[in-house]
Amino acid sequence: MAMHTGESTAADRRPGQEEPPDPGAGAGAAVESGERHGLTALQGLAALSLDAMASVAYGPESIVLVLAAAGAYGLGFTLPVTLAIAALLAVLVASYRQVIAAFPDGGGSYAVAKRHLGRRTSLVAAASLILDYVLNVAVSVTAGVAALTSAFPALYGERVWICLGVLVLVTAVNLRGVVESAKAFLVPTAVFVGSILAMVAVGLFRDGPVSTTSAAGHASALGEGATAVGALLLLKAFAAGCSALTGVEAVANAVPSFRAPAARRAGRTEVALGALLGVMLIGLSILIGRFHLQPVEGVTVLAQLADASFGHGAAFYVVQFATMVLLALAANTSFGGLPVLMSLLARDHHLPHVFALKADRQVHRHGVIWLALVSALLLVLSGGDTNALVPLFAIGVFIGFTVCQVGMVRHWSLERPARWRAKAVLNGFGALLTGVSAVVVTATRFTEGAWLIMVALPLLVLAFEKVHRAYGQIGARLELGRVPQPPRRSRSMVVVPVSGLSLLTCRALTAARSLGDEVLAVTVTHPAPEDRRATEALRRDWEVWNPGVELVELCSPTRSPGRPVSGYVRELTEQRPDTQVTVLIPETEPERLWQRILQNQRGSVVAHAVRRDTDAVICRLRFRITAHPR
Asked: Nearest to residue 365, comparing CAs of 345, 347, 349, 342?
């Protein structure tokens, strides 16, 4: 009968995965550190909602641009379509609140699918979210820089470098910790939300637009002659407007980033995000109808609404500047959610275990850096052009939404709590809406680049599977989960490569004699006359020194020490199969980093060859060179 001691068994781990810490050791310090680096509900709103908040800058505009094809009559459906999106938003918020409560370890749709829909479906959900998070970074940064270059056209030619600079800034802030990023972005978020709500409140008391200066002189994008709106057009408008829902899932994915009680704080953040986003979307759509706004080329719908509500003054520019800043910083949502999701995938052996590690500030540093590098590649390949990336955007998140909703339906049917049927119907309706939206968005944008997502998604799932199989094979080879034979002592031989006599040689042989029953020193010789003279001098000095260790000469036609040493070690292991052979490689470590370029790298060459050609243990002895010797 197994005893539960609070530690994971060998079966729970794979090679390369660190042992979990003792829950009793340093528990107080760990809790204190987690509290200090965890998010409050307000900080979570700033750190994880920027994507969703910033989407009000392009969500209503996406609806208007689609409905504009049906002329002024079509624009009359802006509010009904927005109300449908707001209803879907309410469904998603209610669903993700349940996800947060049921899956407090984070992961969102991945965690739901893993428990209720199977491993393969969970990997599809994870892959879709990863693609969406990466694209969100690229789209957000390029959109924010596009707003900047619109105000300052002279910077247009440098937009790629500006995009990379913004990305470096956001990455650097996130490497300092999720709380630091929340503190840094709290003010921009508050200014943006406050300016949008103020614009809606002021606009509702206007009988007409105060100013139309921003749209003056720009060509109208309004269609003419239409007197009816078809279901397909409304469906396209709904799907386009659903881009405003990206980021709703980020809070559920990053529950472990919150302070205790994490699930309760994350739930409050989710509700606050849904309420603010819903109010802003509905308010903006009411203003669109109230001011009879028509889309024009080169001017955003949000800019026209700010012009109509505030006039073309200081408040107008505050809205534009806040929008520009928040769009650029909306990438922070991905930096808050994706590293946590990647850590869960790593713990399930679908990604390298390094992604599960946390730095001192509770940061999944490797996930942050990986996200930054891939996003930088997208920015360079797209030339910093938002339009080149938008067709790929939001498809992944709709797939994740749908998988999550279907998983929650199964969750209710299995758990059957109070009023489970009503909850299941709600999630089922949400799955239908998001599933239809996913199909429509993919179909309408397929030739514009959405096909790339359809190719990348299965490739990413295959990569997850390959990593999982690799860990499984290594685990089987190491017999993880099985009780091994008792350890036994075997005779030990230590081989020390040397090239001359020095304090380093003395330290190496001292360490070797402490490690092994038998020690051999080896030196690689070359038949050239000057090399022979150096070898003879080393032999004479060795005999005078008489360290009690045999010096073996390995003659080689080349001067590279790697193959001769590895070949000799291989012969030893074949001749003495019951002896554990260790190769101890002495190396100097300079005091200054730049001084490392002065080293000949012989130790690295020998270590690589021995590791490649033999099963011998490699031990690299570092001798630190300091200005003040001990």
From this structure: 342
Q: Is 498 left (phi over 0), alpha (psi -120 to 50) or beta?
A: beta
pLDDT the model gives residue 459: 92
* Full DSSP string of 9-66: -GGG--TTPPPPPPTTTTHHHHHHHHHHTSBPHHHHHHHHSHHHHHGGGTHHHHHHHH
Cβ neighbors of 3 (< 8 A, separation 6 or more) are: none
| Residue 601, amino acid | Q
Q: What is the largest CA-CA distance in the chain?
A: 106
Q: Which CA distances in Å does 223 have to 65, 66, 294?
A: 10, 10, 10
Q: For residue 194, what are the CA distances in angstroms to 53, 185, 318?
A: 11, 14, 11
Structure tokens of 261? Answer: 């009680």
Give phi and psi for 549, each to the nearest 5: -125, 130
What does the block give as tokens for 55? Answer: 């989407």
CA angle 311, 315, 316 (to 5 degrees): 60
Q: Specify the residue for token string 């309706």.
A: 429
DSSP assignment string, 129-186: HHHHHHHHHHHHHHHHHHHHHHH-GGGGGGHHHHHHHHHHHHHHHHHT-HHHHHHHHH
* SS3 assignment, position 464: helix
| CB within 8 Å of 493: residues ≥ 6 apart | 516, 517, 518, 519, 520, 572, 576, 579, 580, 581, 582
Question: Which tokens hold the place of 520?
Answer: 């051999």
387 Cβ partners below 8 Å, 6+ apart?
Answer: none
How far apart, in Å, do the first and last CA atoms of the chain sit? 54
Alpha helices in 291-419 (DSSP H): 301-310, 314-329, 332-347, 365-382, 395-415
SS3 annotation, 473-501 = HHHHHCCCCCCCCCCCCCEEEEEEECCCC
What contacts 571, CB < 8 A, 6 or more positions away?
none
pLDDT in tens, 417-441: 788 888 888 788 888 877 887 787 7
- Mean per-residue pLDDT for 331-349? 81
Pairing of strands 518-525, 491-497: parallel
**Cβ-based neighbour number of residue 593 at 10 Å:** 7
**Closest CA relative to residue 606, chosen from 584, 623, 627, 628:** 584
Nearest alpha-carbon partner for 210 in 311, 88, 92 = 311
**Cβ atoms of 151 and 320 closer than 8 Å:** yes
Q: Provide the CB-side half-sphere exposure for 398 (13 A, CA).
A: 24
- Per-residue pLDDT for 176 more than 80? no
Q: Are 210 and 291 in contact (CB under 8 A)?
A: no
- Starting at the earlier edge strand, list the strands of the sheet with 518-525: 550-555, 518-525, 491-497, 579-589, 617-624
- For the entire predicted model, the pTM comes to 0.68
Q: DSSP state, 218? A: P
- The SS3 call for residue 296 is strand
